[in-house]
Amino acid sequence: MSDGGFQGVRRRVSKKPSPLGGFMLRRRHIGLIFIIALLSSACGGKSSTEADSVESPDGGGPDSGEPASVTYYADVQPVLQQNCVRCHQPGGLGAGDFTDPSVVSALAPAILGAIDSGRMPPPVSDPDCQDYVGSEHLRLPAASRDIIADWIDEGQALGDPSDAAPPVVVETELSDPDLVLTMPEPYAPTFADPANPGNEYRCFALDPGAASGRSITALAPIVDAASLVHHIVLFSVPTAELTAEERDPQGFDCIEAMGTFGQDGVIAAWAPGMLPLRIPDGMGLKIAAGRSLVMQVHYFANGIEGGTVYDQSSYAFELSDDASPAIVTTVGNTSFEIPAGAADHTDGGTVPNPDQDLRLVSIFPHMHELGVTYDMRIRHSDGSQTCLVQGSYDFNNQLTYQFPSPISFARGDELSFSCTWDNSGGDTPVRYGERTDEEMCYFFVTVGR
After folding, report:
1. pLDDT band at 94 (very low <50, low <70, confident <90, very high)
2. Are residues 284 and 370 in the same domain?
3. Which pLDDT score, from 0 to 100, does residue 195 have?
4. Residue 192 falls within a domain, yes or no?
5. Residue at which a domain ends, from 268, 292, 322
6. CB proximity list for 386: less than 8 A, separation 6 or greater
7. pLDDT of amino acid 231
8. Which pLDDT tens digit goes with each residue over 231-270?
9. Do 279 and 388 sit in the same domain of this protein?
10. Which domain holds residue 430?
11. Domain end: 136, 163, 190, which one?
12. What is the CATH number for 213?
């Protein structure tokens, strides 16, 4: 394991002291919907007899003679409302309309196959490690998986529509923002990169306007073309260092934006289903004068021809003039080497807190395409531990995990972190780097006093 710490690795490293003092200045080495596989190709298909028997006349399973104990309206529909329709609905990013029982009935074996293969829902941090805001929508309990399996086994009875659960309303946008910043112009992704078919990473520079010199206390995107927008990462960067290309109203290609802007500029990462990010207890993320915001949008083709659908998404903010400072700081390791052919290589480190009591608000884990799992926890001075984030990693489903209440990180404690990668298909070692064919092990931690 490598020692961890904080260190600038961007080409645009801030020279300003940290508002949180010595802990953040001890820097050595550093120490993002769904990508939908075709549901029809998922395992778990039914025999032709089962497929032809969606519902018996009495509402029970095939040849049951009795009403089914598990029905769509009473049992399956609430599961889908809670965990799936954030993407799988008309105009959403996921394949199929899971609000339509006929669609769900036809796709049921494929849905179960996608769950059992681990592809759906996309992996997120385990709330049993540490709960986070919105976990009830992002993580599918094993009992919910079993409801779908039992429904299929019993013949997929629809049951009584009066048993249907009310729609689950997930407030993914701020209801009364102080400021909304919108992409300068509508943009139609072309998906022209042959190395990333069906995907495009596009960055748009935004004038912070009224946010300049103030603190962000809450933020959330307003997604325009939901069928295309896979995830969004928001950065703060020095305005003077934006090039002419980066100021283009049509944006610029930026698949490696995390390496370019990420070290001292990450504000938050969003994916469908996330709730607004709120900085609690009077804290805020200050947007210093002379900085711009850059919004990286990952577009996913979703069967749409490049250049035909336009997006003009926005980001909304609640602002404060007197919030106490919180910052997003980077914890990680840049000294690792993943051996060629290694299927399960782990590296990480520790970062001590020598001199002040802090509070952790949220964590955004980040690796590249070889990333498999991550873990971060506090090792307290009394020998106990507090798990912070832990789970399987998906480069295409990167999230900021916001804790319901800030977590104490006291003087004398240390952060312990690790990343695991799978390079079993590689014939050369892989080291730290900004390109997506290189790797990272970062945790962007929002921290305040």
Report:
1. confident
2. no
3. 81
4. yes
5. 322
6. 130, 377, 378, 380, 407
7. 83
8. 898 999 999 999 999 999 999 999 877 667 766 688 888 8
9. no
10. 327-448
11. 163
12. 2.60.120.310
CB atoms within 10 A of CB 195: 8
Helix, strand or coil for residue 111?
helix
Residue whose C-alpha is closest to residue 258's, from 268, 243, 249: 268
Q: Is pLDDT of 156 > 70?
A: yes
Spatial distance between the Cα atoms of 35 and 121, rounded to a whole number of angstroms: 10
> Is there a domain that residue 82 lies in?
yes
Return the pLDDT at 235. Answer: 92
Q: What are the distances in angstroms from CA 139 to CA 120, 173, 180, 423?
A: 10, 20, 30, 27
Measured distance CA(256)–CA(356) in Å, rounded: 34
Q: What is the mean pLDDT of residues 404-419?
A: 96
pLDDT at 76: 95
Residue bearing tokens 């701020």: 174
Return the SS3 of 192: coil
| Residues sharing a CB contact under 8 Å with residue 393, sequence separation 6 or more, in sequence order | 123, 365, 367, 371, 372, 373, 374, 419
Q: Is residue 246 part of a domain?
A: yes
Residues 6+ apart with CB under 8 A from 420: 344, 345, 346, 371, 372, 373, 374
pLDDT top residue among 52 and 174? 174
Output the six-digit token pair for 99: 């609000």
